[in-house]
Amino acid sequence: MNIYALTIGIAIVTYVIIRFKKTRLERTKWAYPLFLASFPVYYFAFAIYAKNTQALGYEVLVGLIFFLIAFVAFKSRNKTSALLVGAGSILHGVYDAYHDLLFVNPGTPDWWLEFCGSIDIILGLYLIYYAVNVPDKVLKQDAQTARAS
After folding, report:
1. 3-state DSSP call for residue 14?
2. Which one of 78, 104, 110, 130 counts the least CB within 10 Å of its CB?
3. What's the pTM value of the predicted model, to 2 decimals?
4. What is the distance between the alpha carbons of residues 100 and 26, in angstroms, rounded to a whole number?
5. Extents of the domains making up the chain
6. Do the beta carbons of residue 72 and residue 84 sit within 8 Å?
7. pLDDT tens across 88-144, in order?
8. Distances (CA, A) of 139 to 1, 28, 36, 78, 143
9. How far is CA 27 from CA 23, 32, 55, 77, 127, in A?
């Protein structure tokens, strides 16, 4: 286990959550779904870096699942959106853990599981917590404020 990659992943996801909360991006319709949609792109880049078209094809097929989840989350209401992105993020963490059992992408760094997996799982758990605990009243007020701007 690469403790450095794990620690950096935890620090980054903590920063993202705090920053999204502070700038109110957390309550926008697009921020977290867009963040989820960015996860598969790294695997695309790793396959391109390794010049492995077979791995790129597999990564694109799997990536479509996360793009679809992000799209449905974007089109959903805030709580449903947060639950979908949370579940999608955890699913991506599971994908990170089992990635090499499914197929090999030779461009993927050895430390990627700890780094990306920690981001995925912590973000997913946070978003599910957020969806369950943020009152509907707060989300409706933010939606009205966003429409007025």
Report:
1. helix
2. 110
3. 0.88
4. 32
5. 3-148
6. yes
7. 999 999 999 999 999 999 999 999 999 999 999 999 999 999 999 987 665 555 555
8. 39, 9, 20, 7, 6
9. 9, 9, 36, 11, 11
